[in-house]
Design goal:
The protein folds into two domains: 2-92, Roll (SH3 type barrels), CATH 2.30.30.240; 100-159, PRC-barrel domain (SH3 type barrels, Roll), CATH 2.30.30.240. The chain has helices at 84-92, 186-194, and strands spanning 2-4, 11-15, 20-31, 36-43, 54-57, 63-64, 69-71, 77-78, 100-103, 108-118, 123-130, 141-145, 149-152, 156-159. A hairpin with a 4-residue loop joins strand 3 (20-31) and strand 4. It contains two helices and 14 strands; from the N terminus they run E-E-E-E-E-E-E-E-H-E-E-E-E-E-E-H. The chain is mostly beta strands.
């Protein structure tokens, strides 16, 4: 299922152990290398206030349902210092929303306002880009697929400016019906066969 990233913000985190909400997912932690969400910064009354914050790893989520993220227990919430790879990405402070989007000639296309996520693997599939004022007369928003992304840095995303549409190929099928109306001049050919 594909869902907007903004819809997952402030999603409740439900515990099977307590049978209720233990926190809310406030902000996505996105790996800029793969554009995959690896976790969420969480907040709530049951979460102890730690210096670096508390995180829910996507790997610890059992299911995403109408109720929210479902986990086994509150023990699934970790400190960023507990997991080295998570801490490295967390320390980058990469935020997808609000980042500039440039074409390959480094001309600004706009800023990311939202993105879509595949909930099976939590990988960002598309970026919604709000155009600058002067360019927004024709198109107010652009939707950019992840296949168009060339480079991701801490302050900009570079994309192909033009999408390449594959040419449809026509294959000749043996024994296929020949349309008599597609011949160059069917009337002239019928006259020749009578003579």
């Amino acid at each position: 299922m594909i869902i907007l990233g903004s819809k997952l913000q402030n999603t409740p985190i439900m515990s099977l152990q307590t049978g209720g909400e233990i926190a809310k997912a406030t902000q996505a932690i996105i790996d800029p290398e793969s554009l995959a969400i690896i976790g969420y910064i969480v907040d709530g009354p049951l979460v102890s206030a730690q210096e670096n914050g508390t995180i829910l790893r996507i790997a610890d989520v059992r299911e995403l349902s109408d109720l929210g993220f479902i986990v086994d227990s509150i023990d699934e919430l970790v400190n960023p210092d507990d997991i080295i790879k998570l801490k490295d990405i967390y320390d980058l402070g990469f935020r997808l929303r609000g980042i500039n989007v440039l074409d390959e000639r480094r001309k600004k296309l706009g800023k990311v306002t939202d993105y879509t996520v595949e909930t099976g693997n939590f990988v960002v599939q598309q970026l919604t880009v709000h155009r600058p004022l002067l360019r927004s007369f024709n198109d107010t928003e652009l939707v950019i697929h992840r296949s168009q992304i060339i480079e991701v840095s801490s302050n900009a995303i570079v994309v192909h400016s033009e999408a390449k549409i594959p040419e449809p190929s026509r294959a000749e099928v043996t024994g296929a019906y020949v349309n008599p109306f597609r011949k160059s001049n069917p009337a002239a050919e019928s006259v020749k066969t009578r003579e």
